Amino acid sequence: MAGIDELAARLRAEIGAQRVLTDRQELRTYECDGLAHYKVVPALVALPATAEQVAAVVRACAQTGTPFVARGSGTGLSGGALPHADGVLIVTSQLREIVEIRPEDERAVVQPGVINLQLTKAATPHGYYYAPDPSSQQICSIGGNVAENSGGAHCLKYGFTTHHVTGLEIVTPDGERVRLGGAAPDTPGYDLLGAFVGSEGTLGVATEVTVKLTRLPEAVRTLLAAFRSTDQAGAATSAIIAAGVIPAAVEMMDALAIEAAEAAVRCGYPAGAGAVLIVELDGPQAEVAAQFDEVSALCEASGAFEIRIAADDVERALIWRGRKSAFAAVGRISPDYIVQDGVIPRTALPAVLRRIGEIAAEHGVRVANVFHAGDGNLHPLVLFDDAVPGAAERAETVSGAILDVCIELGGSITGEHGVGADKVRYMPRMFDEADLDTMQLLRCAFDPDGLANPGKVFPTPRLCGEPPGRRQGVHPLHEPDVAEIF
Amino acid sequence: MAGIDELAARLRAEIGAQRVLTDRQELRTYECDGLAHYKVVPALVALPATAEQVAAVVRACAQTGTPFVARGSGTGLSGGALPHADGVLIVTSQLREIVEIRPEDERAVVQPGVINLQLTKAATPHGYYYAPDPSSQQICSIGGNVAENSGGAHCLKYGFTTHHVTGLEIVTPDGERVRLGGAAPDTPGYDLLGAFVGSEGTLGVATEVTVKLTRLPEAVRTLLAAFRSTDQAGAATSAIIAAGVIPAAVEMMDALAIEAAEAAVRCGYPAGAGAVLIVELDGPQAEVAAQFDEVSALCEASGAFEIRIAADDVERALIWRGRKSAFAAVGRISPDYIVQDGVIPRTALPAVLRRIGEIAAEHGVRVANVFHAGDGNLHPLVLFDDAVPGAAERAETVSGAILDVCIELGGSITGEHGVGADKVRYMPRMFDEADLDTMQLLRCAFDPDGLANPGKVFPTPRLCGEPPGRRQGVHPLHEPDVAEIF
């Protein structure tokens, strides 16, 4: 590829030779993100260390018509950072400075490569933390969180990444550096900040992120309630929310997820549980104490046969260990698995669990369920053995059927993992043409040449491919070569 | 205007004769919104009763190249609903159905003409309310709230309109009906919902709004603390927030605002106060009780010489009466006044108050200050007598200088009233060209012909007027005739 060689030479001159990788062996390190069954080796990897270097790389891509994909820590679960075979992968992990912690304004300014948990560690001495906490928080980057609008166990009370980002500096797909938002809770003009957060790298690359810091709660209390069935645990969840309590987290695991966690980390959850709920309350001491009694009573009323209350931080960590290890733990009981991500209205929890059970039984596939139950965010883990012919296909069928159930019940095809490469094909099940066209107006406006993370989020771009007519202001989007990506 | 006559005939046929006004006398009713010193009589007023009728009007405008402006109740304070002299004013107040109240999902679906307070009244029997509460909540519409991303006294704790809208049906500027968002807390694809909320009618017209309902708090407690100076009241505000308490509201009034309120509604605030704070706490009984003692102590420590605690709803209403009447009350002590709207970081409160005092003194103008102190949202009321030559200009100068101070201190030119027609000229003080260009990419994508509320929000459209080149995908925006608008 002569084009790539020229681009590599230009980038080596502009950002430094050690920041540009073209060796096939080195490139392979970046062939996938957390969704490891999609693999594409990029043509070039750039490791810029400053915002201006990011802009230089993007400008070079724009001027040469080269597709580019941004990547943080590469922990995403929808293939959003899957490289483009003829494109540049821009890795932002070298931009890892915590620029500023401003407790008096409850704000922090960080570069995109800063690790989620590091920000919390830096804020803690000031009495603050960064609220969004994906399970991968020890390794995932804030830039990646911005791209995917990441959630986490505590998003029930505290919201998603989009609720904690107040300002961004980005590089647009034509290589220009601009600000979106700022430190204030609201700024005049369009809220493009909100559109950028969760745009999965299709509108540009974030180079600096201003976030809200959240005050460390005065008190945190955690309980584990064991139930005979997921129906009972679902009823308890509904009862807690209906009582007007908003816990920091309400997590549910079913029998199979518990079995996996026990095998992996010996979390010692109550024997014979068909489901467990982890309920965490935080806030002022007085509030937490009053609500804790209420939550315990509601769990009992819904059929909990054992309730364990964490007496201290160690016991609290023990309760969480099972939940936090759940995804990886499934590897102990199954050689392969798909982590699905869907959303339903909380009230549909018992219905969706029954439907998942039926679908699994019908196809002879095991499904372990781990939920952010409080906000109806499901993570069914579909187990299979890739060595068994047809098993992967059956698992894929079950996984897709679960999303259909989510849509049917008024939910969504992704709660926090994003669309990425993986769920592009489901978008038309959720949105009609006019909806997708309207969203793509924005993509076309920012990226008329379709170079920023092509093939992700949107199925075949209809709108921009239309002959000039009604939408005459919009330039045709270059058709991404989907076959090449997958 | 032959063009308008033809358009009127078409619209009469499509949506009914009684829904189309062209009589000059009738049109004059709509010549201004809440910012009454800007007046433009529209060429035609349409009063559609259904979403499809709104779409029909917008389509007719798009096909004939006619500018259009949407209007709710017309209570906006930035001239966002100021008509276009050659355009159609689309009044959405006939779309006033509360479509659905769903307490189990904490959602309501309303048409845009529904009055803010009516939604709360409809939700109250179910134990819920609609949190954003502009001072005009008795008459302002949800559609207008969406256009302006309206705030209110309780936005400190509960956030702005954008934090409570989860789904919209809109009519795009080419007359197409599309959905943005939904009932779920987050949906895949771009968050155009967030960009639409607060876009001040420049991206289309909302025809249905899905909002979050908020649970009525178990307890509400309100206190009034009187201080000798605004410095003391500002220090108390900072101390409360620094203590980790997030009150539902922290409102401040200075001596002149108190004088006005006394003259108008005899609210009986403590004599000799240089400033009062109204602090309202809500939430679980236990939390409110504990925090209330803490807030009282912090007010005393900051110099409060009298603290009144509302013993019941009547006393609570009495405390609020002075604050809620403050804008109108200023009319008792001054023939004319400008309601300014700016934001500063909360920590800059004492500094900004001193600077406002200096600016006012320098120009011989009186300024009454009413604040959402908790979130640093200022509403300086600049008093003047239009009968005195030069007084209006001096008031305008002071009003503008206050915004400059807000920007200088890291704040913003509007907290909740919007940019509208009034603050277009301040946008370049806050944003550089690249920032404004990036925002206008969205406007151009949605509205390449520049027909949706032209002349509002953005100063002269730079980007879309550029010769085809870098931004070649974007169609030139028709240059709005600013002179004609003002």
UniProtKB/TrEMBL annotation, chains A, B:
| Cofactors required | FAD
Is the keyword Magnesium in the record?
no
Identify the keywords attached in UniProt to this record, alphabetized.
FAD, Flavoprotein, Oxidoreductase
Q: Which residues cross the membrane?
A: none
Taxonomically, which superkingdom?
Bacteria
One short Pfam name that applies is FAD_binding_4
An example of a GO molecular function for this protein is:
FAD binding
List each copy of the FAD-binding PCMH-type domain by range: 38-216
Q: What is this protein called?
A: Glycolate oxidase
The record lists the organism as Actinoplanes teichomyceticus
